[in-house]
Write a structure and sequence with these properties.
- The structure is a single chain.
- This protein is mainly alpha-helical.
- It has a domain of 57 residues.
């Protein structure tokens, strides 16, 4: 017999991030003259703690976005903001 598997998510966090994402996307696409490309990531820092996860995540992000210039990074939530501020120069060099 196969186990029952369920995916659970927190509506408040998901709803908050979704709301911010939609509004940021709307503002940027409405006010910038050029085409806007969005990359969406869930860092999952609340569920996966520890320095090894964060170091692996930094390596993964650096490899994934190597060669992709970023003009803006929008992070939601204190933990994600702190993490992005810490790794941004290594992962996205040249992004302010």
């Amino acid at each position: 017999m196969q186990p029952f598997r369920s995916w659970l998510w927190n509506r408040e966090i998901t709803g908050h991030f979704f709301w911010i994402s939609c509004h940021v996307a709307q503002v940027l696409t409405t006010n910038l003259p050029s085409h806007v490309v969005f990359y969406w990531e869930n860092l999952d820092l609340a569920r996966f703690e520890g320095t090894s996860y964060r170091a692996d995540l930094e390596d993964w992000l650096r490899n994934k976005y190597q060669g992709h210039k970023m003009d803006a990074i929008v992070a939601s939530g204190e933990t994600s903001i702190d993490y992005v501020l810490k790794v941004r120069r290594n992962v996205w060099p040249g992004c302010r």
